[in-house]
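During the second half of the funding period, the structural biology subgroup turned its attention to how the target accommodates small molecules. The most pressing case was 9MR, which had performed well in the primary screen but for which no bound structure existed. We therefore specified the complex as follows and requested a full 3D prediction, including the ligand pose.
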Amino acid sequence: MGAVVVLVAAVLAWALPEPDGAPRGERPGLARAHGIALGTAVAVDPLGGDTAYRELVSGHYTSVTAENTMKWQYVQPERGTFDWSGPDAVVGFAEERGLSVRGHTLLWHNQLPDWLAEGSLDAGELRAVTREHVDALVGRYAGRVTSWDVVNEPFEDDSPRLRDNLWYRALGEDYVAEALWMAHEADPEAKLYVNEYGVEGGGAKADALYELAADLLDRGVPLHGIGFQGHFVHGNVPEDLAENMRRFVELGLDVEVSELDVRIPEPVEEEDLAAQAEEYRYVLESCLAVSRCVGVTVWGVTDAHSWIPEWFPGYTAALPFDGDYTPKPALAGMVEALRRDRRPRGARGRGVR
Ligand code: 9MR
């Protein structure tokens, strides 16, 4: 009965016109009704001062990820000095609007403070500062941040070898397990992820990630999920996304598409945006087709906030809203996937995070 009421409410929410005149159908109730999180990465500045940005986030998504502000460089810029202003703003906003929060990220080779990046700590010191950082960050938001990208991008860019990062050099390959245990001790309820890119469509790097995950689980290490980042190039979205995610689910893991964007080479034509909508629809459908795919997060709120133009000159328009905050066909593509999915709430075997 409860499920029916929720479903009816979600359908009504979809059918009613949007007060802001946006095309109907993107309301977060639809994602909730299908048991997945629909998320977006948020930046602290617009979250603080841009009302339209805040409304887009909570009007269309059910979950947020801090795009940068929970990274080590911002959280612990000096050894032993923590800055909680950004993370508190993201978590506070999410709580005010009823959104869940993905924690991003604990161990990553980028965006480290200088004192850590210079690599002068020996194994014992590095283990101690990592534990202190993880305890502080994960502990502060225990029960409020539901999942963490504990290790981000542990493999080399274009190879199936473990990345030669500062933890690998000092602690060896078991640093991944050590970090997962540290996070688990800081919040035993949090879902702990390894997050990676270039693994969405199978291949040697995805196979290596699979072997790593299988080995960690065999040893009883608290790994709960894999994030498939999903930074795609228009026209080049892998066809075996669902199939590849499913084999990780068969190991006993949750999966999610954690950083979706689809960049288009300039100049962008109407037909590119229409084709991009199909790509967004396909990614949502792939998640909905995998029993323990718990969500899809897009990497930024609008094209004005996307990392793409800066990092990939000549590419643009990667997100579901344009730089004027207008919904693009990609947004309708995601909604279409949700509408086509006929399973009621609960059919996925778990609730919304
Ligand atoms: O979107 C982030 C961008 O603003 C930063 O400048 C960049 C620094 O490397 O990191 C971006 O986010 C990355 C994410 O944390 C991990 N996966 C790749 C993302 C894009 O680089």
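Two results from this model are relevant to the next phase. The chain has one domain: 2-343. The longest helix spans residues 270-288.
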